[in-house]
Specification:
By secondary structure, the protein is α/β, with parallel strands linked by helices. It has 8 helices and 7 strands, in the order E-H-E-H-E-H-E-H-E-H-E-H-H-H-E. The protein has a single domain, classed as Rossmann fold, CATH 3.40.50.720. It has a 7-stranded parallel sheet, with helices on both faces.
C-alpha cells in the first residue's frame, strides 16, 4: 500500500471530538474517505459539520460488539482503523464497586478487541490498526489503578497483534496531557488550574493539542514499515 491516505478508507472509533475528530479531519484532508463513530448524537452532529460531506458519522458505542461488527461489515473497504475509546475511573484503594471499576478496563480493552477482530477480516496487506493508550501504562496514575492497567493492556495487545495479524500493521499511541473535552468532564471548574500545574512540570511547558496527536496517528497509518511500536507524544511527560 502506498504511503498516502488518498483514496483509502479510514475508520475512527471515537471520532466525534478531541483527538479522534482531529485525526478524522487530518485524514480527510489527505484524501481519505473517513467514517467516525461516537455515542453522543450532539457531538456527532457537530463533527459532521466540521468534516463536511466527505465523511460519514455513525452512532456506535465502542463497547457494543454487535454494533461495531455491523458497522465494519457495512463498509465497502477498510484500510486504516484508529480506536480512541477509553474511560478514566478514579479508584483510590479500589474503593468503588466492581461494577463501577469495570468500565475503566472494558471500554478501552474490550472495545479495542471487538474493533480489531472485525477490522482485521476486512483489511488487506498494508492496512493498519492504531490503538490509543496513555502514559499511565508506563507511569501509573495514583488513584486510578484499573485505568492504568487498561493502558498497559492495550500496549501489550498491540504488540501481540502486530505478530498475529501481519502483514496488517498494529501500533499504539500514547498521548500525554492533551487539550480535549475529556478534561472538562474529569476536572470541571478545576480544569484550568490542574492543566496549568501539569504544563509547568513538562519539558515543553505546555499542554498538547489534538492535531499534534493526529499528525502522529497519520504517520503510523502511512509508514508501511512501522509495526508493533508504542509511540509516545507527550511533551516529555514520561521523563519527569
Amino acid at each position: 500500500m502506498p504511503n498516502t491516505l488518498k483514496d483509502t478508507s479510514v475508520l475512527v472509533l471515537g471520532g466525534s471530538s478531541g483527538i479522534g475528530l482531529a485525526t478524522a479531519q487530518a485524514a480527510s484532508a489527505e484524501g481519505a474517505t473517513v467514517t467516525i463513530t461516537g455515542r453522543s448524537e450532539t457531538r456527532l452532529g457537530a463533527a459532521r459539520t466540521a468534516l463536511g460531506s466527505s465523511a460519514t458519522a455513525v452512532a456506535v458505542d465502542a463497547f457494543d460488539e454487535n454494533g461495531t461488527r455491523a458497522l465494519i461489515e457495512s463498509l465497502p473497504s477498510l484500510d486504516h482503523l484508529f480506536i480512541t475509546a477509553g474511560a478514566i475511573v478514579l479508584d483510590t484503594h479500589l474503593e468503588p464497586s466492581s461494577d463501577d471499576l469495570r468500565p475503566a478496563l472494558e471500554t478501552r480493552f474490550w472495545g479495542a478487541v471487538y474493533a480489531a477482530k472485525y477490522a482485521a477480516m476486512k483489511m488487506s496487506a498494508g492496512g493498519s490498526i492504531t490503538f490509543m493508550s496513555g502514559t499511565a501504562g508506563r507511569r501509573p496514575l495514583p488513584g486510578a489503578a484499573v485505568t492504568s492497567a487498561s493502558c498497559g493492556a492495550i500496549d501489550a495487545f498491540a504488540r501481540a497483534l502486530a505478530l498475529d495479524l501481519a502483514p496488517v500493521r498494529v501500533n499504539s499511541i500514547t498521548p500525554g496531557y492533551i487539550d480535549t473535552p475529556l478534561f472538562d468532564e474529569l476536572f470541571g471548574e478545576q480544569r484550568d488550574a490542574i492543566l496549568a500545574d501539569a504544563a509547568a512540570q513538562l519539558p515543553m511547558k505546555r499542554i498538547g493539542r489534538p492535531d499534534e496527536i493526529a499528525h502522529a496517528v497519520l504517520f503510523l497509518m502511512q509508514n508501511g514499515y512501522v509495526t508493533g511500536i508504542n509511540l509516545a507524544v507527550d511533551g516529555g511527560c514520561l521523563l519527569v
